[in-house]
Design a protein that fits this description.
Order of helices and strands: HHHHHHEEEEEHEEEEHHHHH
Strand content: 5-15%
Number of strands: 9
Shape: elongated
Distance between the termini: 37 Å
Radius of gyration: 28 Å
Length: 383
C-alpha cells in the first residue's frame, strides 16, 4: 500500500524528522507532523466506516448474497451521496499520491488503488443516473476503508518507533555548565556549545556532549549507550560521550564534537535511516503493484472489447470495472503494513534498533547463536 508500499508515495518520510540534530531537542520535533498525519488517517477511517454501514445494507451484491431486498424512493441518490463523500474524503490521500506516481511515470500501489476506486465510482454514478447496471458503491467504500486502516496501522507503528528514537535524544540533558576564563561557571543550552568549550561535570550529572577530559577522574556509566553495565574509569585525556552518567568524581572536559558529529546523534541518524528503509515485503509489493497496474489495465480493456462484442457495451463496461476493482489487492494493502507495524513497534519497545531491515528479516534462518561467557555480544568499546 505509504510512503507507500511505496513509502515514498505515502511519503511518511515527508514528516522530515530533521533527525540529525537532536542536540537542541524539545521533545516534540520528531513526531509533530507524523502525529497530525496519523490523526488525519484515523479520522478519515472512522468517517468512511460510518458511511459504509448504510452502503453495505443497501448494496445490491450483499442483498443478493444474503437473500433480502430493500427498495425505497431516493435509494440511488442516498447511495450516490454517501459514496461521493467516501470517494472524495476517504480517497483523497490515495488519489493525490497516485497523481505524484503518474507524474513520475512509475505506477505503484497508489495508482492501482486509484484505478479501482475511480472506475468503481464513475461506473456507479453512471448506473445511478444514466445507464442500467449494478453499482459498486459498497465495493468502493470497503476498498477505501481497508486501505485507510492499513495506512493508519503502519503510521502508528512508525510513530511508536519514532518515540523510541525520541527517547534516545532525551538521554542528553538540555543544559551544560561552561567554565569561563576566570574559572567561574554558568549554565548554557547544550546546542550553544562549540568545539573547544570547557565544561564542568558534577557527580551524578549526565554528560551533555562528546568531550575529552583534561582534569579530574571518575567512573562513568555508559550502559545506556554501549550495553556494558560496568562503569568506565575516566581521567585526563579520556574521551567521554554525551548521554552517559558521571559517577562520584568531578570532571572537567573540552568539547570535541557537536551537533551531528556526536556519538548519540550518529546513533539516532542510523536508527532513523534504518526505519525509513523498505522491507523485503514492501519492495516486492512495489514491484508487483506496478506490474499489476498494467495487467489490470490491459485485461480490463480486453474484457471490455470481448464482452462488448458478445453482449453489448453495457456488459463490457461492467466487466471492465469489475476487473479493475478485483485487481486491487485489498489483502496486500492490509497485510504488508500489519507485518511491518508489528515488527517495527515490537523491536522499538524492546530497545532493539534495526540498522538493516533486510538483514533483520533473514534472522529466522539463524539456527545457532554463540555468546561469550558474560552473555553479551559487545567488545566494551565504541565502534
Amino acid at each position: 500500500m505509504h510512503h507507500d508500499h511505496d513509502h515514498e508515495h505515502m511519503n511518511h518520510g515527508e514528516h522530515n524528522h530533521d533527525h540529525h540534530d537532536h542536540s537542541g531537542h524539545d521533545g516534540h520535533g520528531h513526531g509533530g507532523h507524523g502525529a497530525h498525519m496519523m490523526a488525519d488517517f484515523k479520522q478519515r477511517f472512522w468517517v468512511v466506516l460510518v458511511l459504509s454501514i448504510p452502503l453495505a445494507i443497501i448494496a445490491p451484491m450483499l442483498m443478493h448474497l444474503f437473500g433480502y431486498h430493500i427498495d425505497f424512493p431516493g435509494q440511488g441518490l442516498l447511495e450516490f451521496g454517501l459514496a461521493t463523500i467516501v470517494f472524495f474524503y476517504g480517497g483523497k490521500p490515495f488519489l493525490s499520491h497516485a497523481w505524484h506516481e503518474l507524474k513520475s511515470g512509475v505506477p505503484g500501489m497508489m495508482m492501482l488503488i486509484s484505478l479501482a476506486i475511480v472506475a468503481a465510482y464513475v461506473y456507479s454514478v453512471l448506473t445511478t443516473f444514466f445507464i442500467s447496471g449494478m453499482n459498486y458503491y459498497f465495493e468502493l467504500a470497503s476498498l477505501i476503508l481497508i486501505m485507510l486502516a492499513g495506512h493508519y496501522i503502519e503510521m502508528r507503528a512508525q510513530m511508536s518507533a519514532g518515540n523510541a528514537v525520541e527517547s534516545l535524544a532525551k538521554l542528553l540533558p538540555s543544559d551544560a555548565e561552561v567554565i569561563h576564563e576566570d574559572g567561574s561557571t554558568s549554565e548554557v543550552k547544550v546546542d550553544q556549545l562549540k568545539k573547544g568549550d570547557r565544561i564542568f561535570i558534577r557527580p551524578g550529572a549526565k554528560i551533555p556532549i562528546d568531550a575529552t577530559v583534561y582534569e579530574g577522574h571518575s567512573e562513568v556509566d555508559e550502559s545506556m549507550l554501549t550495553g556494558e553495565s560496568v562503569p568506565v574509569l575516566k581521567e585526563a585525556d579520556a574521551k567521554i560521550v554525551g548521554g552517559a552518567i558521571n559517577g562520584d568524581g568531578i570532571l572537567k572536559a573540552i568539547v570535541t564534537k557537536t551537533g551531528t558529529d556526536t556519538y548519540l546523534a550518529q546513533i539516532i541518524s542510523l536508527v532513523t535511516d534504518a526505519q525509513a528503509q523498505k522491507s523485503k515485503a514492501q519492495s516486492i509489493a512495489d514491484v508487483w503493484a506496478k506490474y499489476l497496474f498494467y495487467i489490470a489495465l490491459v485485461v480490463g480493456i480486453i474484457a471490455f472489447v470481448a464482452w462488448t462484442a458478445i453482449d453489448g457495451y453495457l456488459m463490457g463496461l461492467q466487466f471492465m470495472v469489475a476487473t479493475f476493482v478485483i485487481a486491487c489487492p485489498h489483502a496486500l494493502g492490509l497485510a504488508v503494513p500489519l507485518v511491518n507495524a508489528e515488527s517495527t513497534s515490537l523491536a522499538a519497545e524492546s530497545g532493539l534498533f534495526i540498522q538493516n531491515r533486510i538483514a533483520f528479516e533473514d534472522v529466522h534462518k539463524i539456527d545457532k547463536i554463540v555468546f561469550d561467557k558474560t552473555g553479551t555480544l559487545t567488545q566494551g568499546e565504541f565502534g
